[in-house]
Amino acid sequence: MSEQSNFGPDLGEVFGPNHADGGPELVQLLTPEGERVEHPEFSFDLGDEAIKGFYRDMVLTRRIDTEATALQRHGELGIWAQLLGQEAAQIGSGRALRTQDFVFPTYREHGVAWCRDIDPLRLLGLFRGVDQGGWDPDDGNFGLYTIVIGAQTLHATGYAMGLQRDGVVGTGDQDRDAAVVAYFGDGASSQGDVNEAFIFAASYNAPVVFFCQNNQWAISEPIERQTRIPLYQRALGFGFPGVRVDGNDVLATYAVSQAALQRAREGQGPTLVEAYTYRMGAHTTTDDPTRYRLSEDLETWKLKDPIQRVKAYLTRNGLVDQAFFDEIETEAERLGEHLREGCRALPEPRVLDIFDYVYAEDTPELAEQKAGFAAYLDSFETTGAH
């Protein structure tokens, strides 16, 4: 396999100055007004039917988010991490994945989970406190939500190195070659785990895409406190390419993610993708963003809403009629009902189940621990009987 990268433009030409609007180096294929534009290095190779599908994905993902937020406000969830405004970054990258690719998310990748056919009720279980963390990674090749900030980047890099040793990278077989994507935010980019993952990924040429959703805020800390240069430029210091994409442009996010993932599958190593977007909601439902950011900034970013720009494209080109939007809205209502009813019906966990998800095969030591804990629990029932 040649070491020559075919990903994106010459690195010396890509990296430009940082600007509030994302800068001239920002990859964009669909403007906020819904107009298709060309880019010299990246292109969207799917048709309008796919764009309709992206619109549906984003609308339904936003409905998951709004329903979960409402459930938390009604005391049905302990907390919820909102993704409002980041739908295009997640759907674009999520739809660029192949079945064999593996995802390591943070705690906000509800849209990516949707793309991997994960029932959103399974996500609600974590935030309701009835999920003990057991998860079948083969279900959608989607890892556990990671609460520890940035830790998943190390998990992703290690898994990617494992793919190399399994011989499923750079073989030329499109149905077999696999890549890994690690999602994290701009705040996590300051964590040691993330930088260590960059070092290992570069050193071993691991097939991993580091997908940073730069939503401008690390809880209440602005991006200006995180870095003095655009985040994607950090990749150069570790020896692999970085690219900044309009994270509110689902077409551009898809195209850039597709190229980065293919580069990884071919054995050309890691890529850092910075999806330049904005968190229009709160960090979580325990956060009050009005205490640290200006309402004018939020209003400015509302004009770049990822869903509205796709709606504008579909409408202005006569690709859909009102019935199309009505049908999706009806589907969103059904999804909302599914989440409201399903959340309240989620069963309480069985305490002893925690022992069943530790090892692939039971061990004598684990069986002994389980039996001992079961006897401990039974002691309470006996005591209560007297």
Structural notes for this entry:
By secondary structure, the protein is an alpha/beta fold. It has two domains: 11-345, Thiamin diphosphate (ThDP)-binding fold, Pyr/PP domains (Rossmann fold); 351-385. It has helices at residues 11-14, 48-73, 87-95, 110-115, 120-128, 151-165, 192-203, 234-238, 250-265, 295-302, 306-316, 322-345, 364-385; strands at residues 102-104, 180-185, 208-214, 217-218, 221-222, 242-246, 271-276. Helix 7 links the parallel strand 2 (180-185) and strand 3 (208-214). Helix 2 packs across helix 3 (87-95). The radius of gyration is 22 Å and the shape is globular. The model is unreliable at 1-6 and 8-20 (pLDDT under 50).
Extended strand count = 7
Number of helices: 13
Distance N to C terminus: 73 Å
As for the CATH topology of the largest domain, it is: Rossmann fold
CATH superfamily of the largest domain, by name, is: Thiamin diphosphate (ThDP)-binding fold, Pyr/PP domains
Spell out the helices and strands N to C: HHHEHHHEHEEEHEHEHHHH
Task: Please identify the structural class as seen in this structure.
Answer: alpha/beta
CATH architectural grouping of the largest domain = 3-Layer(aba) Sandwich
- The number of domains: 2
Biggest sheet, open or closed, and with what strands and sense? 5 strands, parallel
Shape: globular
Beta fraction: 5-15%
Helical amount? 40-55%
CATH hierarchy class name of the largest domain: Alpha Beta
Low-confidence parts: 1-6, 8-20
Rg of Cα set? 22 Å
Q: What average pLDDT do the residues reach?
A: 91
Q: What order do the strands of the largest sheet run in, or round the barrel if closed?
A: 1-2-3-7-6
